Amino acid sequence: MTTLDRLSAEKYILLTTFRKDGRAVPTPVWSVRDGEALAVWTRADSGKVKRIRRNGDVTVAPCDVRGRPHGAEVPAHATIYGNGDTGRVRDLLKHKYRLLGRLSLLGSRLRRGEGGTVGIRLTLAEGQG
Questions:
Q1: CATH topology of domain 3-124
Q2: DSSP letters of 38-56?
Q3: For a FRET experiment, which of 37, 42, 104, 129 has its CA 20 to 30 Å from that of 112?
Q4: 48-54 average pLDDT score
Q5: Quick check: helix, strand or coil at residue 4?
Q6: How many CB atoms lie within 10 A of CB 38?
Q7: Shortest CA distance to 15 belongs to which of 76, 74, 60?
């Protein structure tokens, strides 16, 4: 089983982005396999999106709902999806997280509208896939 397979099987992953001064900002997020990458979904105006737009270097690790890692950290590169791809990520999340995923996505759409959230593509560093 590859690292990508193991991470995509997790319920939560710890996505760590980095501030301008280099300080790490870890956040537990849902993730789903998207081809040869992982995808996560978040608010479009979140701090992690702003940090990724500035610097796409991130790390990912398996974790629990509270963000406590239970596996090795892996370097990755993050990019923000466009609207069409974000819709596909929402569909993948609905499939993986079933009823809870559908309810979370519906609630978010009602609060923020379709453009209020974005998908993030996480490509594992060479040799990590």
A1: Pnp Oxidase; Chain A (2.30.110)
A2: EEEEEETTSHHHHHHHH--
A3: 37
A4: 97
A5: helix
A6: 25
A7: 60
